[in-house]
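Lab notebook page, bench 4
Experiment: in silico fold of construct C2
Operator: M.H.
Input chain length: 277 residues
Purpose: comparison with the prior construct
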Amino acid sequence: MDNHFIRKLFEEHQKLHNQMPGSAACHFLEGIMQLLFPPLSEQRLDTTEAVAVYAEGLQIELQQILMNLEKVLPAPAKQLSEEIMQQLPTVYHLCMTDAVAIADGDPAAQSITEVIRSYPGFRAVAAHRLAHEFYRLHIPFLPRILSEYAHAKTGIDIHPGAKIGSHFCIDHGTGVVIGETTIIGNHVKVYQGVTLGALSVDKAMANIKRHPTIEDYVIIYSGATILGGNTVVGAYSIVGGNVWLTESVPPYSRIYHRPQIKVSQVSEPAGILNYSI
C-alpha cells in the first residue's frame, strides 16, 4: 500500500473513540447461552456456587465490554450490566417456551434437549431475546452485533428491536427475516424463507412502525412475504406458502397463493429430458 493510503487509514483509526471488539460481544453471548442451556455448555457446573461464579464472571465480562462504550451509554456500565443479568430469568423462561413449541410442533424433534442443542430456530430466537434486552435499554452497537452473529450462525435475520411473544417456533428457518418494528404474539409458527418486512426503506420512516403485527396462534408457511407497519395478521390465521401480503386480514383467515401449474402426460416420450443442476 502507498504511504498516502496508509496515512488515511491511520487518521481513520484515530477517529475511533468507542472501540469495542465484536469478538468480545460474541464470546459473551456464547457464555450466556452455555449458562442458561446446559446442552450447549462446554463444562459441567456441579454446584450452585459454580453456577453463581460463572454468572458473576459473565457480568464482569459484560461490564468490561460496556466500559469501552461509556461515553455513549445511557447509564453507567456497571448499572447496565447488572440490569442485563437481572433479565436473564425472563429470557430463560421465554426461550424454554420456544423450545417446547418447537419440540411439540416438529415431528422430527426427539426431545427439548435436541432442540436446544441443534435447532437453528431456537438458537436464533434465544440470541434475539438477549439482544432485545440490550436494545430495550438503548445500549448502542451491541444489539446488532449479537443479532448479526446469530444471523451468520443460523441464516435467520431477526432485528433486535422486534417484539416477540412466548412459544415462538421457527421451523427450519433458513432465510427468515424479521424487521425492527415487527410485533409477534404468542404461539406463532414461522417456516423458512418468511419475510416480515417494510413496504418502504425510506430513511424518513426510521422512527415509525414499518413492519407487520402478527397476532397469537398464526402460522406462516415458507416463502410468505408480509409487509407494512399497518398490516395486521389476525389471530389463528394461516398464511400459505409464497403469499405476498400488504394489507390486514381478520382473525381466522386463510390466505393462499395458487400458482398456475400445468401437468400433461404422453404415452411414450420421444426422449428423456435429463437436466444437470
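Observations: The helical segments are 3-14, 22-36, 48-67, 77-86, 88-105, 112-118, 120-136, 142-154. The mean pLDDT is 92.
Next step: discuss at group meeting.
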